Amino acid sequence: MQRVQQQYQRACHSLAGGVSSSTRKNQALGHAMYFARARGCRLWDLDGREYIDLCASHGAALLGHNHPRVRTAVLEALARGAPCSYENEHHAALAELLCRTVPCCELVRFTGSGTEATMHCLRLARAYTGRSKILKFAGHFHGYHDQVMYALGGSAAAERAEPPTGPFLPPHAASSGLPPGLDEHLVVIPFNQPEALEAACQRYGRELAAVICEPIWYNAGCIQPTAEMVRALAELPRAHGALLIFDEVLSAFRMCPGGAQQYLNVVPDLCTLGKAVGGGYPLSVFGGRREIMQRLMPEGDCQHSGTYNGHPVVVAAGLAAVQCYLERGFYEHITQVGTRLISGLNELFKRHGVPGHVQGLGARFGLYFDLPKPPLTDHDLLAHNRTLMLRFVASAIRHGVYLHDYGGGPCHHGFCAAMTMADAGEALRRLDAAIGELARDEISP
Ligand SMILES: Cc1ncc(COP(=O)(O)O)c(C=O)c1O
User: How many CB atoms lie within 10 A of CB 113?
Assistant: First the structure.
């Protein structure tokens, strides 16, 4: 990793923390990773080492890197001059496709990042309801804007480590720089406890503009809502006049074309789509019921604009990517590869006596260490062994499988549709060696 490490040292002189995104430093390695090229499910670092990618650009590369149809669409958009800040025929084509595919979308808008998408959804929910409070679940991640920088990962765990004082959790700030008083607009409760949602709706119902959630809680690995939780989400917020927002930045297109709302059979009022929607290019979307979306300017009074919104290159990439997701056999293949990887990894942990556990849905999965049972709530995650997770990630990378470490916390990993069953077998062979090494180190560290 000579050139990789040199590159990190060089970057530290001019990039804050050596990276363009705070979470990009892989703490298991002590530096960021530098990839010179990528194709399908493979990455090559600056030193020429090849890896099987189980990060998949944090979920953006659902199709695989450098997919030929996305590349062709991008090159065509560039050849046409890619004039940004204007509309072309691809915008309506992609919007139509999304409205046909994602159950709640009657109208959509394009943004750059998932962070912008959730920010605009929340503003729109407040504009539409005339209310100000937002309910979020502890540990659910909705991007990096101020409104939602509370009760995340480590801070949510700290909340749960404190003795609970009722169904409501204190909204611990997950960053400095947040203005005092902003958290007064937030109600935080644990996920998969429908009675907490009921209590919150009873107490704050008239003030709640929206309940926002990750319908599949991928930012804690992969935690699905219980049937009772699904029912509570579908019924309670709307019974109290609040909107239901599914943040599908990560879950969109992950397990079926209509995302988690199709999978769970719950149609929210608004949703976000991100990562996979752009086929590896920076496109995100928010959309929902016509009546709500019509509150956006220029028809309505709620602002959503941006110079780079719906950039022609990323819209062309998104159109090509979504067309691929709709092809016959796409999700059958994802399910086959996912089943092989997840069952194979669980077998390897068992065989080597390493206390790891994997659970997943569609093309993403969570890795947990030292948990007494498969996790369902944020409370269940408190026992997760971050040190073991970091050691596993470092060992996997040494053996040619790239995973991001997310500081050792329980977070999501995944694969792309370009991964064949043979690639999955090769990944498991490499992980067999990595877990074997981990087991030996655990016995004699
Ligand atoms: C559920 C969810 N919402 C929002 C975001 C923010 O998206 P972005 O990183 O594109 O701003 C993410 C990013 O991981 C996410 O997983």
Answer: 17
Give the mutation target among 22, 115, 411 for probing the ligand 1 site: most ligand atoms within 8 A of CB. Answer: 115
CA pair distance 273, 252, nearest whole angstrom: 6
- Domain span including residue 368: 2-66+328-443
**Helices and strands (H, E) in the chain, number of each type:** 13, 16
Q: Whose CA is nearest to atom 12 of ligand 1?
A: 143
Task: Examine the fold and report which residue of 306, 325, 344 is the final residue of a domain before the chain moves on.
Answer: 325
- Of all protein residues, the one whose alpha carbon is nearest to atom 8 of ligand 1 is 114
| Ligand 1-lining residues (CB < 6 angstroms) | 58, 113-115, 118, 141-143, 214, 219, 247, 249-250, 274, 284
The closest residue, in CA terms, to atom 9 on ligand 1 is 114
The rounded distance, in Å, linking the Cα atoms of 437 and 375 is 26
Structure confidence by residue, pLDDT tens digits, 277-314: 999 999 999 999 999 999 999 999 999 999 999 999 99
Q: In what order do the strands lie in the sheet with 270-273?
A: 107-111, 284-288, 270-273, 243-248, 208-213, 133-137, 186-189
pLDDT digits (tens, 9 = 90+) for 236-260: 999 999 999 999 999 999 999 999 9
Q: Distance, CA 142 to ligand 1 centroid (Å)?
A: 6
408 & 394 share domain: yes
| Distance from Cα 297 to the centre of ligand 1, integer Å | 24
Which CATH number does the domain housing residue 393 bear? 3.90.1150.10
Given the DSSP bridges, would you call strands 133-137 and 186-189 parallel, antiparallel or unpaired? parallel
pLDDT digits (tens, 9 = 90+) for 149-162: 999 875 555 556 66
